[in-house]
Specification:
312 residues, alpha+beta, Aminopeptidase, 11-stranded mixed beta sheet, 8 helices, binds coenzyme A, GNAT_dom, Acyl_CoA_acyltransferase, transferase, Bact_Acetyltransf
Length: 312
């Protein structure tokens, strides 16, 4: 079966799985990619393995291994899980030739539609774990249930002299998320975060807001408006896509409604600019963020299955 026939079968299968998934055309090789294919009885898989590398000081280095091998897969036939299993065998053979065993700065990652569940057991058996999720909140979700509005929470745009607060909250968030494998805190993290956040303060059109509780800054939310989300918008079948970059509440203020107030504020500003859907990443094993986001009207769209090191 050729890769276009496999992609067509894949698209047909997924059309009934999740209406918010984008179109998934046949895989096109890119520079440095390796094409793979496999069959299992009447089922077939096409894959593309792409290697990327990030410097330890780059803005996205906290969210990834420095070297990542990412597999994109198209699966068709009556047993997609068997097709994926056979593809993973091919991929493992390839990874053994390019990734040093035991190097924790290498990761093998398969980003799969969350609701396309066949193959999950096969991934687990090969040492992959579902680490990260892209969750989606369509704009027409109804208001959410949550804690009663906390009196005294005041939300305002971040100003230049909020830098220390914002960096402190972001570091606290990243330290917390690092426990669940979705963040790697490296030397120089504070400097990288400071450089990134300082560009987002005091803006005429704010993208970062601070929550004060009785005058003390204890939370923040950061967003990207639809004009700035080209890097992720292709992940969802929607026109105007917003991205919620981070939400953090200081440990002493958690569970008291500050996070809900910040999320409601972010959703209101997204609504005001006509956003169709909001995406965000969260660590699946985070016992605070996972239930929080699903109570705010999000649900999983893509799941990152990761094995790190790429070759154990
Ligand atoms: C995730 C996080 C931002 C949530 O913010 P928060 O201020 O703690 O959340 P809120 O208080 O607004 O909402 C949770 C509380 O709402 C209440 N609540 C939730 N659903 C409710 C409902 N249906 N009815 C009434 N109350 C409800 C509960 O009191 C709940 O607290 P609990 O989980 O301890 O029981 C915050 O915990 C945090 O910063 N965590 C660490 C960093 C992190 O994980 N950030 C997210 C990265 S993606």
């Amino acid at each position: 079966m050729n890769s276009h026939a496999i992609a067509a079968g894949h698209a047909e299968r997924l059309a009934t799985v999740d209406a918010l998934l984008p179109e998934m055309p046949a895989l096109e090789p890119v520079e440095g990619s390796v094409s793979l294919s496999a069959t299992a009885g009447d089922s077939a898989a096409a894959g593309l393995s792409v290697r990327t590398e990030a410097g330890p000081d780059s803005v996205d280095s906290p969210w990834r291994a420095l070297v990542e091998h990412r597999l994109e897969a198209r699966l068709t036939g009556p047993r997609p899980e068997a097709a994926l299993d056979a593809l993973l065998t091919r991929w493992d053979e390839h990874l053994k030739t390019v990734a040093p065993p035991g190097d924790v700065e290498t990761a093998a990652t398969v980003v799969r539609p969350s609701r396309d569940s066949p193959g999950s057991a096969e991934l687990l058996r090969r040492g992959f774990a579902p680490v990260l999720v892209i969750a989606v909140r369509p704009a027409d979700r109804l208001a959410v249930t949550g804690p009663p509005a906390t009196p005294g929470v005041h939300i305002r745009p971040a100003e230049a002299d909020d830098l220390e607060t914002a960096v402190g909250l972001e570091l606290e968030l990243q330290r917390y998320d690092a426990q669940f494998g979705s963040v790697t805190l490296r030397e120089g993290a504070e400097e990288t975060i400071t450089a990134d956040l300082s560009k987002q303060l005091g803006r005429e059109n704010p993208t970062l807001w601070i929550a004060e509780l009785y005058g003390r800054p204890l939370g923040m939310v950061r967003v990207q408006f639809p004009g700035d989300t080209a890097w992720i918008r292709g992940r969802v079948a929607a026109e105007k896509v917003g991205y919620l970059s981070s939400l953090a509440v200081a440990e002493q203020a958690r569970s008291s409604g500050v996070g809900t107030a910040l999320a409601a504020h972010a959703h209101q500003v997204f609504d005001e600019c006509g956003t169709d859907a909001v995406l965000l990443h969260h660590a699946l094993a985070n016992p605070r963020s996972t239930p929080f986001w699903y109570a705010q009207g999000y649900r999983p769209l893509w799941t990152y299955w990761q094995r790190r090191p790429a070759v154990p």
